[in-house]
Structures are given as structure tokens and as C-alpha cells.
Amino acid sequence: MIDDQTKKSTTRRLKLIRGQLDGIERMIDQEKYCIDIINQITAVRNALEKVSLLVMKSHIESCVADSIEVGDEKKKAQKIDELMETLYKFVT
Q: Could you tell me which CATH class the domain 4-91 is placed in?
């Protein structure tokens, strides 16, 4: 479960990213310099990665921590496997 602070932060960041994407679309329509467009795309990708890390941190602090505290070894192993699979996708 995403906490209120993370929800506010990610929502704010996603709105900024949406604005950046609109800007990129305008740049393409206006046939701006390709490198400038690529730089903006890179900025959006980096911003999305930061949003992902915020959500991942929230997940670890809530869902993963809860499964560890409960002491259910099967559930804990499932959460760790799920997290590792997600981390693998994130970094590759």
C-alpha cells in the first residue's frame, strides 16, 4: 500500500512528467533538433525511474516488511522473489 506522502510525491512527479511528454511531442511537431529531443526523452526516463524507486521503497517498507513481521516463511519468500524479479526488470 502506498502511503500518503509517497502518493503525493509520485502524483506531483507524474504530472511534471506528463508536461515533459507534451513538450517532447511539441518539439517533434516543430521539428526541433534531434539531440534536444533525445535529451528530453532521457530526462523523462530518469524521472520515471525516480518515481519507480519511490513506489518500490514504499512497497518494501509496507508489503515486504509486513510479510517479514508476520513470520509466514512462504509469504516472505514469495515477497522476496517478487521483489527480486521486479528489481531485475528495473535494472535490465
A: mainly alpha
